[in-house]
């Protein structure tokens, strides 16, 4: 079908381009042009090239903290949806309020992560409070078959707190003069 489609149109997309064998291994030393995959410069981001809303560099510990907070927020939102889907008539009020609480918490975590990555100072406090809550929750899950949940919550909470409280993050989230 593909060959028929090319013969029935005036455009021969394959025939216009000369065929050149390309080797990604040998490179330009054998007389062929070195082929580099075209990747736009805006997509070549690393942890050290993320910039906030004002064009200032966001330190990598803050980027990691914001990323983990966003993952936490998405997981809490998923839990809110699952909780809302499992509401029964015998526990309607409890199910709805629990789902609304977790949806608000998840949305707050995602928003806090976004604004942390943008370098907004005010976003630090809600994220720190949420991580302290996560550490308390981790403590309550310790022991028995839920130890893995406890370890996961504890490690993520401590990494996020370390990223937010890192000196480079504190400097990036500090008050900046208006002319910067």
Secondary-structure map:
Layout: H1 2-7, H2 13-16, H3 60-85, H4 92-117, H5 124-141, H6 147-165, H7 167-173
Please outline what is shown here.
With about 180 residues, this protein is mostly helical. The protein has helices at about 1-5, 15, 60-85, 90-115, 125-140, 145-165, 165-175.
Could you characterize the architecture of this molecule?
- The model has no long low-confidence stretch (mean pLDDT about 80).
- The chain is built from 7 helices and no strands.
- It starts with a helix and ends in a 7-residue tail after the last helix.
- By secondary structure, the chain is an all-alpha fold.
Features:
59% helix; mainly alpha; globular; single chain; 180 residues
> Which structural category do the helix and sheet elements fall into?
mainly alpha
Query: Rg from C-alpha positions?
Result: 25 Å
Number of helices: 7
What's the β-strand tally?
0
């Amino acid at each position: 079908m593909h060959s028929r489609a090319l013969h029935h149109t005036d455009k021969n997309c394959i025939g216009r381009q000369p065929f050149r064998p390309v080797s990604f291994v040998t490179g330009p030393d054998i007389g062929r042009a070195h082929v580099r995959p075209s990747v736009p410069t805006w997509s070549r981001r690393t942890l050290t090239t993320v910039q906030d809303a004002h064009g200032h560099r966001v330190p990598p510990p803050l980027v990691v903290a914001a990323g983990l907070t966003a993952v936490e927020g998405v997981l809490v939102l998923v839990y809110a949806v699952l909780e809302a889907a499992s509401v029964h008539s015998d526990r309607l009020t409890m199910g709805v309020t629990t789902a609304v609480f977790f949806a608000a918490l998840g949305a707050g975590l995602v928003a806090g992560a976004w604004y942390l990555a943008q370098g907004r100072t005010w976003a630090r406090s809600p994220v720190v409070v949420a991580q302290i809550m996560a550490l308390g929750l981790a403590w309550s899950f310790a022991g028995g078959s839920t130890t893995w949940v406890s370890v996961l919550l504890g490690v993520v909470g401590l990494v996020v707190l370390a990223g937010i409280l890192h000196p480079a993050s504190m400097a990036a989230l500090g008050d900046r003069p208006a002319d910067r």
